[in-house]
């Protein structure tokens, strides 16, 4: 009986289909694992918190145009705008990715969990993603017949992001250049570009309406503190690679204090705009909304100070600023 079983097992193992089944299964599992690893790595490479912010902000900016022009609130209009959002997402993925490619050595110290230093994606794969983002983004603009101003603003954002991260320009090596370039890209180019493209795609002329001026000024000012706070967790790696940030020069507490003060001034300015321009803004929304966010900001800044600006607390405060900005955009169509 045992002998027969052994013969059957031996015969089974010699059968070409049965013999290859475990190998093929293992090979399929390996392929699926690699695909899954690469997909997760690509997602992390795009820096989800910034990508989510880009998606949210651009939807809300477009929503504001539709609120001001409700006759265009139709499904075919929304679907027509969808490829444009894909192009914007690809641009933001490029902004975040090109910075990581040239920051590998710094990120091994400051952010070893990022996909390149963590080994989730290779440098060659990262470069492939960068080329893909730029080429497909520009092809989408071409397919949508984007005008010269829209295309120029889109390309200007790509160029500034490249100069920010890559030698010999590498604006990020200068603290002053950083607090100019980041607000310029995310505050002016993004907001003006999206609002301009949204209006022209609907056949509307672009103009510097109070709402356009407000959101452009607010976000531009907001990203100055963001540009400062982002370095709270990175001092060790920055100092090691001779990147003299304001945090490294004047200390964590001073940077947090200055940044919180700038944000509070921004919120006070928003409340003042609603009081002095009631015909342009909904003061019943803007006043209480910005007052609540101001108090919340003070509370979180106090918690950061209590934590003595530890790395984890600083990272949490940085993420909190993105939440504040997201809430601002969510409320923008109703202001």
UniProtKB/TrEMBL annotation:
Membrane-topology annotation of the record: Multi-pass membrane protein
Ranges that cross the membrane: 77-95, 121-141, 148-164, 176-198, 205-229, 255-273
Keyword Plastid: yes
The species this protein was found in: Ficus carica
Alphabetic keyword roster: Chloroplast, Membrane, Plastid, Transferase, Transit peptide, Transmembrane, Transmembrane helix
GO molecular function annotations of the record: transferase activity, transferring alkyl or aryl (other than methyl) groups
Protein family (similarity comment): Belongs to the UbiA prenyltransferase family.
Superkingdom of the organism of origin: Eukaryota
Name listed for the protein in its UniProt record: Prenyltransferase
């Amino acid at each position: 009986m045992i002998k027969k079983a052994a013969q059957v097992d031996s015969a089974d193992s010699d059968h070409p289909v049965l013999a290859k089944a475990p190998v093929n299964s293992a090979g399929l599992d390996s392929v699926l694992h690699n695909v899954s690893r690469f997909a997760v790595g690509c997602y992390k490479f795009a820096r989800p918190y910034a990508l989510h912010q880009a998606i949210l902000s651009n939807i809300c900016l477009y929503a504001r145009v539709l609120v001001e022009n409700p006759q265009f609130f139709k499904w075919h209009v929304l679907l027509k705008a969808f490829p444009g959002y894909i192009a914007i997402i690809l641009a933001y993925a490029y902004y975040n990715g090109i910075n990581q490619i040239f920051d590998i050595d710094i990120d091994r110290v400051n952010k070893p969990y990022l996909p390149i230093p963590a080994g989730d994606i290779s440098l060659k794969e990262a470069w492939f993603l960068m080329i893909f983002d730029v080429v497909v983004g520009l092809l989408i603009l071409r397919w949508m017949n984007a005008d010269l101003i829209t295309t120029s603003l889109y390309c200007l954002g790509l160029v500034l992001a490249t100069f920010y991260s890559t030698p010999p320009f590498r604006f990020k090596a200068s603290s002053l250049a950083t607090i100019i370039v980041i607000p310029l890209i995310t505050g002016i180019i993004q907001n003006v570009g999206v609002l301009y493209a949204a209006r022209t795609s609907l056949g509307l002329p672009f103009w510097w309406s109070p709402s356009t001026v407000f959101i452009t000024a607010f976000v531009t000012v907001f990203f100055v503190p963001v540009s400062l706070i982002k370095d709270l967790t990175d001092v060790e790696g920055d100092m090691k690679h001779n990147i003299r940030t304001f945090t490294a020069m004047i200390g964590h507490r001073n940077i947090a204090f200055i940044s919180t003060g700038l944000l509070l001034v921004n919120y006070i300015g928003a409340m003042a705009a609603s009081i002095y321009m009631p015909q342009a803004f909904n003061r019943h929304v803007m006043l209480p909304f910005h007052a609540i966010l101001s108090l919340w900001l003070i509370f979180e800044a106090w918690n950061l100070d209590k934590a003595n600006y530890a790395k984890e607390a600083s990272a949490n405060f940085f993420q909190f600023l993105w939440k504040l900005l997201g809430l601002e955009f969510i409320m923008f169509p109703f202001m």
